[in-house]
Amino acid sequence: MKLFPAIDLLGGKAVRLEEGKRDRATVFHHDPVHLVAALAHDGADRLHVVDLDGAFGEPRQVELVRAIVAASPIPVEVGGGIRDRAAVELILGLGAAFVVLGTAAVRTPELVEEVCRAHPGKIIVAVDARDGVVAVDGWTTSGEVTAVELGQRAAGWGAAALLYTDIARDGLRHGPNVAATADLARHVTCEVIASGGVGELDDLKRLRAAGITAVVVGRALYDKRFTVAEAAHVAHGHEKH
């Protein structure tokens, strides 16, 4: 299983939100670029960067994302409020290996299909669900489509992967929804990346045992529940039995 540490950007700083709520943000680092080298050195396979300013409809942190991509020796996937083709082209132009599309997949599926076909292997579709139903607009409203339905559509468009987040668990370290993640993976033909709720190394073991091939880990790293090196060791299947 591949390990993707998350760097969530808000106002130029690295933060973590609880349940996607802006008023529940904790600043973890005042210079996110300085996080990059250590994360890559300790065994991360890819960086998962989210521009929360963009996600909340404010000006995108273009230069900061550019600096993170330039500093990273491993691939970087970037998401956060990317809702049109121009934004996709901008992020790929900064050197990002992958672009994560969320709300757009529900609101404007024809756009997502278009960019998936234009950039094969580079578009990741975020499936943010609560009780199996996709949520949109910063998780505040229901998209009235199930996670499996959206996932199957995206796979059909040629998405590189699905980023599955159980909103109720995100940032709370209550454990990922392994069953729902594995169920989605069984129903689609592209990779499913688990996200949200990882709080212990055992959570990584459970995801790996369920056949999940990649995981995003955020708050638990910054709360020092475990290190990137420890997480990579478990994710890659190197721990002692």
Topology of this protein?
Elements: E1 2-10, E2 13-18, E3 21-29, H1 33-41, E4 47-51, H2 52-55, H3 62-71, E5 76-79, H4 85-93, E6 98-101, H5 103-107, H6 109-118, E7 123-130, E8 133-136, E9 141-146, H7 147-157, E10 161-166, H8 178-187, E11 191-195, H9 201-209, E12 214-217, H10 219-222, H11 228-235
Parallel strand pairs: 1-4, 1-12, 4-5, 5-6, 6-7, 7-10, 10-11, 11-12
Antiparallel strand pairs: 1-2, 2-3, 7-8, 8-9
Verbal overview:
- It is a single chain.
- This protein has an eight-stranded parallel barrel, surrounded by eight helices.
- It has a single domain, classed as Aldolase class I (TIM Barrel).
- It is α/β, with parallel strands linked by helices.
- It has helices at 33-41, 52-55, 62-71, 85-93, 103-107, 109-118, 147-157, 178-187, 201-209, 219-222, 228-235, and strands spanning 2-10, 13-18, 21-29, 47-51, 76-79, 98-101, 123-130, 133-136, 141-146, 161-166, 191-195, 214-217.
- The protein is built from eleven helices and twelve strands.
- It is globular and about 40 Å long.
- The mean pLDDT is 90.
Mean pLDDT: 90
Quickly name the level 1 CATH class.
Alpha Beta
Low-confidence runs: none
What would the CATH topology be? TIM Barrel
Q: In angstroms, what separates the terminal alpha carbons?
A: 17 Å
* Helix amount: 25-40%
DSSP summary: helix tally: 11
Q: Order of strands side by side in the largest beta sheet?
A: 1-4-5-6-7-10-11-12
The tally of strands reads 12
Cα radius of gyration in angstroms: 16 Å
Range of strand content:
25-35%
- The CATH architecture comes to Alpha-Beta Barrel
The coarse overall form would be: globular
Total domain modules? 1
- The run of helices and strands is EEEHEHHEHEHHEEEHEHEHEHH
Structural class: alpha/beta
Q: Give the biggest beta sheet.
A: 8 strands, parallel, barrel
